[in-house]
Task: structure prediction
Amino acid sequence: MASLEPLFCGDFLAIFGVVFWVIFRAVTEASFGVTTLSASRPYQLNEDEFSFQFSRSSGAGGQNVNKVNSKAELRWEVAQTECLPPDVIHRFMSRYRNRLDADGLVVVVSERHRDRERNRADCIEKLCEWIDSVWEKPKPRIKTKPTKGSKRRRIQDKRHSGEKKRERAKFQYDPTDHD
Result:
């Protein structure tokens, strides 16, 4: 009977360990939502401009719920950033003005996950989604006039509903009758 010893030599275990570690990291990053700030976006945010505070989260957490500060709160001074063009900053501040505190800092909160790092990454991802939503300039509305056909149909509908109401009346009004 052949020995299994050659299959489990040191080189095989080293290669298997590296492959396992690469697969493990890829799976955990995908499932935990670890984000990078340059993930195919037209802007590059500077993480040094962010300030994070951590506090106790509400909701699920098991035995750790009253011990661990897992809720993440990101604060960012959007008006002073150099990462975004001025028009994007203006659109961001006008759309998300309810997310600004008294000092003009954008506040993003996440307590979706049970651990601090995933909530931190979730805050950054939320902020990136908000910036993505204001990145494109909105198209200006082109004023249009109603067509002749739509005006005619509107008047015709008004006449029709008026006739219905006249028919419902107890007293039948005849505009040609002049007594």
